[in-house]
Amino acid sequence: MADRTPMEDVLRRAFDANVRYWETVGRATTDYVQTVSKLWADSPISWKPASMSWNPAVWTEKRTTNADHHHDSAVAPALVLEGAAGTQARTTLMIRNDLACDAEASVEVSTLCGPDGRVASVKVRALPESLTLVAGARAPVTLVAEITDALHVDTDYHGEVTVPGLSAKGVPIVVRRRAP
User: Fold this and answer.
1) What is the pLDDT of residues 87-120, one digit of tens each?
2) Is there a contact between 122 and 144 (Cβ–Cβ < 8 Å)?
């Protein structure tokens, strides 16, 4: 067998160094994930729904009033349904099944509240109202709001769309009547 050239020797050493480097990175990553997982499992904090807030002493449920919807949605992004009185405002959102199994779920829209915390006399419908999705599938849902004279012009009415069973989190919505 022929002797190796100096270039072959350099390439072999570079390849070996590269393999050792990635083995070390892999071990360090594995150790890190195991350590963080153990810390998380041993911590006094556990996963709670968004309506729960953590107090160092105990978990307490965050009490929200209808007036809180205005403040929460003011900083969070929301789907906006806006139109003049006598029209229908529409928007579409995509529902996705991230579960490992097929799922059937209903699309629920909360009551809407004005800035004063009072329930608004506007209804938002979801079309379709329920979905059956195979694992990994997604489907569009259209939200329809009837904009009436009962809504004040340029006033935000806040609510939320939820899909229990597919998502622990809701999507904030805002319905607004535009000036004619």
Assistant:
1) 999 988 888 888 889 989 899 999 999 999 899 9
2) no
CA–CA separation, 148 and 89 (whole Å): 11
- Distance of alpha carbon 167 from alpha carbon 169, whole angstroms: 5
- Name 138's bridge partners: 96
37 backbone φψ class: left, alpha, beta (φ>0; ψ -120 to 50): alpha
Report the topology of domain 65-177: Immunoglobulin-like (2.60.40)
3-state SS class at 53 = strand
Q: Where are the domains of the chain?
A: 65-177
The pTM is what? Answer: 0.57
Alpha-carbon distance of 87 to 145, in angstroms, equals 8
DSSP code for 4: P
Tokens of 78: 């929301």
